[in-house]
């Protein structure tokens, strides 16, 4: 019986070792087998396009920030005008009371 258990033990260790190695190799592979690798030229092209899109968005953001500033300035002017009209209204209403 000792010979059987000794004979089984190395086989079990081999299977465990093979499973460990294959799982380690699977984890360290650069890309999953179902995905194709992308070349550096494709990545560079995509990066260039993204940089261009970013530049366009930055320009649009700058334009929108300018418009927002103009609107805030107009709102401040309208608020100041409303405050003055309210003061004059209160003064006029006191005269008639």
Automatic annotation (TrEMBL):
<keyword id="KW-0539">Nucleus</keyword>
<keyword id="KW-0862">Zinc</keyword>
<keyword id="KW-0479">Metal-binding</keyword>
<keyword id="KW-0156">Chromatin regulator</keyword>
<dbReference type="GO" id="GO:0008270">
    <property type="term" value="F:zinc ion binding"/>
</dbReference>
<dbReference type="InterPro" id="IPR013956">
    <property type="entry name" value="E3_ubiquit_lig_Bre1"/>
</dbReference>
<feature type="coiled-coil region">
    <location>
        <begin position="47"/>
        <end position="74"/>
    </location>
</feature>
<comment type="similarity">
    <text>Belongs to the BRE1 family.</text>
</comment>
<dbReference type="GO" id="GO:0033503">
    <property type="term" value="C:HULC complex"/>
</dbReference>
<protein>
    <recommendedName>
        <fullName>E3 ubiquitin protein ligase</fullName>
        <ecNumber>2.3.2.27</ecNumber>
    </recommendedName>
</protein>
<dbReference type="GO" id="GO:0005634">
    <property type="term" value="C:nucleus"/>
</dbReference>
<feature type="compositionally biased region" description="Polar residues">
    <location>
        <begin position="19"/>
        <end position="29"/>
    </location>
</feature>
<dbReference type="GO" id="GO:0061630">
    <property type="term" value="F:ubiquitin protein ligase activity"/>
</dbReference>
<feature type="region of interest" description="Disordered">
    <location>
        <begin position="1"/>
        <end position="38"/>
    </location>
</feature>
<keyword id="KW-0175">Coiled coil</keyword>
<dbReference type="GO" id="GO:0006325">
    <property type="term" value="P:chromatin organization"/>
</dbReference>
<keyword id="KW-0833">Ubl conjugation pathway</keyword>
<keyword id="KW-0863">Zinc-finger</keyword>
<dbReference type="GO" id="GO:0016567">
    <property type="term" value="P:protein ubiquitination"/>
</dbReference>
<comment type="pathway">
    <text>Protein modification; protein ubiquitination.</text>
</comment>
<keyword id="KW-0808">Transferase</keyword>
């Amino acid at each position: 019986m000792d010979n059987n258990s000794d004979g089984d033990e190395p086989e079990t260790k081999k299977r465990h070792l093979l499973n460990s190695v294959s799982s380690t190799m699977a984890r360290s592979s650069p890309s999953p087998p179902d995905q194709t690798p992308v070349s550096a030229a494709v990545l560079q092209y995509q990066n260039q396009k993204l940089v261009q899109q970013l530049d366009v968005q930055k320009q649009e953001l700058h334009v929108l920030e300018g418009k927002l500033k103009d609107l805030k300035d107009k709102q401040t002017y309208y608020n100041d005008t409303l405050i003055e009209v309210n003061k004059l209204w209160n003064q006029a209403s006191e005269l008639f009371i």
